[in-house]
Design brief:
65% helix; transport (chains A, B); homodimer; globular
């Protein structure tokens, strides 16, 4: 039988390709006809102008190339500080409008180095802000629920999803209004611009801050546009954190679980072969344990059922208890490995086990005492 | 004192802004001078042509606008199936070259809907493939180490990072060679193209499949370019999975840990105040438990120390054991909550507890028997 993770990956690949094929078919249907009409109209108008001024084909080509290359420069100074900051933002966030791109080799090289370090930094930062945003939202939700004296004043996941979605909607709608005012775009186009920007697709067919030398002349608008992008991406990160991140880590978590299970199986085998005290696990014996609480400080022959080499200081263990069943000790080691792997390090507790015949003496530190001594 | 997560987020924000400011300063220094030279040269040549053909300023503007809008159409049919598939890929992966963008409102609307569903799907798929790739790499590393009879035939994280980095380098270098051949770009430019594509920045200053109507006439090259993008992004996902994903989830994990700790504290308090059987935890009583193995099927008054409302079927519990210490039961509930939160659902075990005075009767199902009955 195929492993769950492989099946899932295969299913995802099939889904994605189906989705791409479907998308291609629909985009073809929606845009293809318009494309032909639009292209013919463009070529027609060009031909008219060409004939009117009697421009040779070669010169027209040169003129076209010049016109295309001039475009970024019409937006003002793209590489003075404000423009360079805007460019750095589009690189780091992977929006990459392409409204201005490096023309020197040094510029290209530095862009690569910059992106290599900046993109992971940006990813981690946006996720961190997103997480804080979710945390803050759930705090607000709880407060509001308390205020209205709801039965359970807790923030459920659904509440959070609603709040984050509302936040994203308000932000896009508000941002679009501002862009539509400053750029003189239609409201629909502004929404499209905000969406394409915040998903980091960044086509570059519509780019803010490119009209009337806005980069040089409207500092307040530059500030707004940049803050919109950065805060907007944080909200997107919050919703990804809430809805997608756990799906992203599914395979990795399954893998860890499988490893832990394999480890457990290996452990069990050892148990069966080499250990006398395996009886209770397999339902053959009836045993009684005598559990004693002993004063701290006195320790006698301390031995452990656990044969794993795990470092107790780094482990998560059940708090305040010691082994009272050989079985449980073995399974504890398994659990330890698992949690060590999944990096949940929570409580550090010492448990010391003494074994003499079928009598198990347990000394467990009181959590209260521990808190004092720490 | 500020919470660890807030401090971290603040530090990340400061880092990011510093990085952006630094980037802006360097890009300014590298590109700004060149920008002025280049712009002047372009405007100069344009003026020359304008004067030669005696084109009015208005007509020149129209001609420029036409030239700019015509550009996508020179690459062939952008919205026939191959082109539409290419477009769908750039949307789903958030590369967004912008070499062709929807011109109809329907096209724009559908692009938004398509991206809204497609980007999360793509993210999850690429991470799934990336994880499988890492898994496969570690398998190969182990095999190779065994072949060369290394002391420990295990794949360390460093090994994996080296392998994934090597894979990414080979892929970029190989891809660049192919693009440089097909597109007649310099090798450096091809490297730049591959990098900008695989980081999903996708400026669109250089776009594959746009020369000589490649989309219509070179199916094998179209196939190669698409596979390069998809496989390349999987390799990038593998390295993110290895190096960045755990940083991304740091805050969320800390939050869970804090919640669990708060829960534990609450639990402890309840224990101290309301529960008679708290004795052993606080070192006041000495109690003895009699543990019995009982046949399945017989159940008497089943009560639990656990006061939490967790659904046993969804829980992770220590395998094969039952409560043998009131203390432990309480801490188990705490552990349950924790693992429920972190969505590690692993082993489903029933433990039933009977309590009569200080005598606790424990019935724990044998894992062997369970395996049979399931």
């Amino acid at each position: 039988m195929m492993k769950k993770q492989n099946v899932r990956t295969l299913a995802l690949i099939i889904c994605t390709f189906t989705y791409l094929l479907m998308g291609a078919a629909i985009f073809d249907a929606v845009e293809s006809e318009n494309e032909n009409k639009y292209r013919n109209a463009l070529f027609e108008s060009e031909r008219l102008i060409q004939r009117r001024f009697n421009i040779s084909d070669v010169d027209l080509k040169i003129l076209e190339a010049i016109a295309f290359k001039e475009l970024p420069y019409k937006g003002g100074n793209q590489w003075k500080f404000a423009g360079a900051f805007y460019y750095a933002t589009t690189v780091m966030t992977t929006i990459g409008y392409g409204h201005s791109t490096p023309s020197t080799s040094w510029g290209k090289t530095f862009t690569m180095v910059y992106a290599f370090l900046g993109i992971p930094l940006g990813l981690v930062m946006f996720q961190a802000i997103g997480d804080r945003l979710n945390h803050f939202s759930s705090y607000i939700i709880r407060k509001v629920k308390k205020m209205f004296e709801c039965k359970d004043a807790v923030a459920t996941e659904t509440d959070l999803v609603i709040v984050v979605t509302a936040l994203a909607t308000i932000m896009t709608a508000g941002g679009a209004a501002a862009f539509s005012y400053y750029e003189k775009w239609t409201y629909f186009d502004s929404i499209y611009y905000c969406f394409i920007t915040l998903t980091t697709i960044g086509f570059g067919d519509m780019v803010a801050l490119q009209q009337d030398s806005a980069l040089d002349s409207k500092p307040e608008y530059v500030f707004f546009a940049l803050i919109f992008i950065l805060f907007g991406l944080a909200v997107v990160a919050a919703s990804l954190n809430l809805m997608v991140l756990r799906l992203v880590t599914l395979n990795t978590e399954d893998e860890k679980r499988d490893e832990a299970a394999a480890l457990k199986a290996a452990k069990d085998t050892v148990h069966l072969e080499g250990d006398i005290i395996t009886g209770p696990q397999h339902g053959l014996l009836e045993s009684s344990y005598n559990t004693e609480k002993r004063g701290s400080g006195t320790e006698s022959t301390t031995s452990s059922f656990c044969s794993c080499d795990c470092d107790p200081a780094r482990l998560i263990t059940r708090p305040a208890t010691a082994a009272d069943d050989p079985d449980k000790v073995a399974s504890d080691c398994f659990a330890r490995k698992l949690f060590k792997t999944s990096r949940v390090r929570m409580l550090r507790k010492k448990s010391r086990i003494e074994l003499s015949d079928t009598r198990t003496t347990i000394w467990s530190e009181s959590p209260k005492l521990r808190r004092f001594s720490e």
